[in-house]
Each structure stands twice: as C-alpha cells, then as structure tokens.
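Problem 12. The chain below contains 74 residues. Write out its predicted structure in token notation.
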Amino acid sequence: MSLSILPSEQLAHVIERIVVNKQMSYLDAVLHFCERRNIEPEIIAHLLSDKIKGELSQEAQGLHFIPRTNRLPL
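Solution.
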C-alpha cells in the first residue's frame, strides 16, 4: 500500500499494533515502522493522529527530550 494514500487512522492502528505486539514505546514503534518501509520519520509526521502525537509527546517529556507542559485543568 502506498504511504501517500494511507489514512491517518489506519497508520495509527498500525502503530498501536506495533506498540502492543512488540512491546515498544510509541517512539520506537514509529521509528520501527519507518525503518521497515525505508522512509524518513519526517515524511509521516503529518500523517500521525492526534492520539499518537500525544503519546509521543508524553514519552518525550518523560525522557526529558522536551520540557514538561504544566497545564491546569479548566
């Protein structure tokens, strides 16, 4: 299947399956997906769902790759 026509929700499903089946983090799962298809992660960044982006953000904050965002619930 061509990546250009891969819907965001289908990509999210594939990434979720990799996370569960291979017991990987979301970051590792996205990188694994890209490596297996020989594409750069920047190419699929805009195709990632908000849920996957949120999971990646949480992981990056936990690893101190990006600063934590302190938001108060409104």
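Discussion. The chain has a mean pLDDT of 87. Students who got a different answer should revisit the alignment rule from Section 12.3.
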